[in-house]
Design a protein that fits this description.
Keywords: Hydrolase
Strand order of the largest sheet: 1-2
Radius of gyration: 24 Å
Distance between the termini: 44 Å
GO molecular function: hydrolase activity
Structural class: mainly alpha
Pfam families: Zincin_2
Shape: globular
Protein name: Hydrolase
Length: about 475
């Protein structure tokens, strides 16, 4: 488990300007932004402006740009919104996207041919998934996004996800002083909070911008980041993902469409799942502890003419997760839930793709290696909330869902999503076979519960296709 929420540590080295920056990246082996997309930079390490809003604004300006830069600085210091300056986050994210990925690929608008290909892939994926899951389609529409469109579409959910963590950190900036001193230090505290909002905005903006260059859909991080009911794919990133795999691009697109459509089914028809995952993030935020002694020292010595001191204090581990049973429980709850979501998607997609795509095994292994080496989901959660998604958990969860399918059928497997208390626990992932064959689980009672829910009781049930008989090969 990482010890620093928001990834206060060494940053990825980013090109600062044009071809010279790219050349420097290639020579030094840097430019691997995704290695720590949320990281604050240390002074003098890598690109000076990579994670520093001040250096980002002033690092390479000509005199004609100084007026605009000072105006931006004034807006930053006068910010009075929430814990994250989301206007700055959006601006930084769009700038990051416009710079392109480390391999030099620039964002581009989606053309009509790519849009049609995505729509057809999602349509076919939904037909295949009908054979292997009781959950009906959750994709009311299929869309193809550019990287910039992904940023615009997902920022509202990032706000919901990040604000609880940032709010806990930001509130500490005004709470360390005795009450009688807070009025006297009001302007200083306000400036620090504005700077904190700007720094968090810069972090989140860079992270979202970097992720936009990697993700292939709206659910890569295991959470529903896009609008409900929209299955979204990014053609440019899919092309980059499939490069050098030796797999026809149509098969790559279709396999990734299967994953996106499977996620959409789960989040659309398990009504408690979204709030369960986001609640786990908020539960983690409540356990963030602030080193008050260090923060008091920073407040006492803070120089408004040198706001970078605040950044240096942040990166020195001022904010740490509490090592308490409650905090460990919150992290375990989130890790297990994400593993179960990803494991279910992996198992269901493999069942749908294996009989139809010659490349199914190869694509599955490629995605597993991507996770093992730190894909978008792993990077996001490790740097955002200090959670390391362990690949072993994901493999165990996938094996558990596949075993459940063999032992109890599709309906018995998917019926476990009826309520969070029915799902496997972290200890069950350690012993998947034990959970699958646990005799004390009376699945006649499960069927009874699902039947009562279908009759109009619980609002927490998953929306299952019931009373349709065995689907088998005759499913739509």
């Amino acid at each position: 488990m990482s010890n620093t929420p928001f990834g206060f540590g060494l940053p990825p080295e980013e090109p600062e300007n044009g071809d010279e920056g790219k050349k420097k990246d290639q020579q030094s082996g840097g430019g691997q932004g995704p290695a720590n997309p949320f990281g604050f930079g240390s002074p003098g390490a890598g690109g000076a402006g990579a994670d520093n809003p001040l250096a980002a604004m002033f690092g390479s300006l000509n005199p004609a740009d100084l007026g605009a830069a000072f105006q931006q600085l004034g807006q930053m210091l006068s910010y009075e919104g929430g814990p994250v300056n989301w206007d700055m986050a959006k601006q930084i994210a769009r700038q990051t996207v416009s710079q392109g990925t480390p391999d030099g690929t620039k964002d581009a608008s989606v053309n009509p041919g790519e849009r049609s290909a995505v729509e057809e892939a999602v349509r076919l994926a939904d037909l295949w998934l009908d054979d292997v899951t009781s959950l009906p389609s959750g994709a009311g529409s299929a869309v193809a996004w550019s990287r910039a469109e992904w940023v615009e579409a997902t920022l509202p959910v990032w706000k919901e996800l990040v604000d609880p963590v940032a709010e806990r950190v930001g509130a500490a900036m005004g709470d360390v002083l005795p009450e009688e001193m807070q009025a006297m230090a009001g302007p200083l505290i306000g400036m620090m909070r504005s700077m904190g909002g700007a720094m968090f905005g810069t972090q989140i903006g860079q992270a979202v911008g970097v992720l936009a260059g990697e993700v292939v859909g709206s659910t890569d991080v295991g959470l529903p980041l896009g609008p409900a009911g929209k299955a979204a794919l990014l053609p440019l990133n899919i092309e980059a993902f499939g490069k050098d795999l030796g797999v026809p691009k149509e098969e790559v697109r279709l396999y990734l469409a299967l994953r996106e459509a499977a996620h959409q089914r789960l989040f659309a028809h398990v009504p408690w799942l979204r709030s369960h995952l986001f609640g786990a993030v908020e539960g983690y935020a409540r356990g963030i502890k602030v080193d008050t002694a260090k923060l008091e020292d920073v407040v006492g010595q803070f120089d408004p003419q040198n706001p970078e001191e605040l950044q240096q204090a942040l990166q020195q581990g001022m904010f740490q997760p509490e090592d308490t049973p409650e905090q460990k429980t919150a992290l375990a709850r989130l890790e297990t839930a994400l593993a179960l979501v990803e494991g279910w998607v992996d198992a269901v997609v493999h069942a749908a793709a294996k009989p139809r795509l010659a490349s199914a095994d190869a694509l599955r292994e490629t995605l597993r290696r991507r996770r093992a080496t730190g894909g978008p989901a792993e990077q996001t959660f490790a740097t955002l909330i200090g959670l390391e998604l362990r690949p072993r958990r994901l493999r165990d969860a996938s094996r558990l869902w596949a075993s459940l399918t063999d032992a109890r059928g599709v309906d018995g497997r998917d019926g476990l999503w009826a309520h969070p208390d029915m799902l496997p626990t972290a200890s069950d992932l350690d012993d998947p076979d034990g959970f699958v064959h646990r005799e004390q689980l009376d699945f006649s009672e499960l069927d009874k519960m699902l039947g009562e829910a279908a009759g109009g009781g619980s609002t927490e049930k998953p929306d299952l296709k019931k009373d349709e008989g065995d689907k088998g090969d005759d499913a739509e």
